[in-house]
Amino acid sequence: MKESLNDYQFSALHFVSEKTDLTVDLVKNHVWIGGSETTKDGKKFMSNIPVEEVWTMPNRYYVNGYVTTTKPIILAGTTIRNVKLFLKNGKVIRIEPKQQVLLDTLQTDEGARMLGEVALVSANSSIAKMGITFQSTLLDENAACHIALGQAYIDNLLDGYLKKEEELTELGMNKSAIHEDIMIGDSSMSVYGILEKGEILIMENGDWTI
């Protein structure tokens, strides 16, 4: 799947469901990662087991719309459910209903209100089929499409390690002391990949179409 997504090099993704309508631009020369990863010296490793997601780097400056959480967010021992986040020009500008612990997290630094990751996961993944909310991000992120507030992964940018900090910022890579995954996918979600000449349906009703 990651090979197909990398071949398309979509300029943006459009997430649409009963609870979400969000457009996420992707950085130029983004790289989709899934399954095993490779270190700079060529060694393969698994950053998480299981891995049922494929993820890449959003452009921190161009994210617009709203999302509603479909899995709990666990912050500082607090469980947050069914919260809606509104984003404009890359930043979270409003949360409904108000959740103080989440608002405090967004104040961590400038990048905490912006996206560092966008990930696609089938609503029929093996983790999702279990029907269990583990309340553990490393498991729950493999059951639903998600976004992440905060730090981006440099592996998601072609030759990212060779670029200077100011160049990475200009390209749209987010920097932050936090990285908080927020699950937004469910069986009603469709995801469209935006190209220069039209769009392609990537997921429908929570499952892959490509």
List the topology elements.
Blueprint: H1 2-8, E1 12-16, E2 21-26, E3 33-34, E4 37-38, E5 44-45, E6 54-56, E7 58-68, E8 73-75, E9 78-80, E10 84-88, E11 91-96, H2 100-106, E12 115-120, H3 126-129, H4 137-140, E13 146-150, H5 165-171, E14 179-183, E15 190-195, E16 198-204, E17 207-208
Antiparallel strand pairs: 1-2, 1-15, 2-7, 3-6, 4-5, 6-12, 7-10, 8-9, 10-11, 12-13, 13-14, 15-16, 16-17
Task: Write a concise synopsis of the structure shown.
The chain has helices at 2-8, 100-106, 126-129, 137-140, 165-171; strands at 12-16, 21-26, 33-34, 37-38, 44-45, 54-56, 58-68, 73-75, 78-80, 84-88, 91-96, 115-120, 146-150, 179-183, 190-195, 198-204, 207-208.
Describe the structure.
It is a single chain. The chain is mainly β and 210 residues long. The chain is built from five helices and 17 strands. The strands form four sheets. Strands 11-10-7-2-1-15-16-17 form an eight-stranded antiparallel sheet, with no helix packed on it. Strands 3-6-12-13-14 form a five-stranded antiparallel sheet, with no helix packed on it. Strand 8 and strand 9 (78-80) form a beta hairpin.
Annotation field: number of helices: 5
Question: SSE order in H/E notation?
Answer: HEEEEEEEEEEEHEHHEHEEEE
The rough form would be described as globular
Strand order of the largest sheet: 11-10-7-2-1-15-16-17
Q: How big a fraction of the residues is strand?
A: 35-45%
**Radius of gyration (Å):** 16 Å
What does the main sheet amount to?
Answer: 8 strands, antiparallel
Distance between the termini: 8 Å
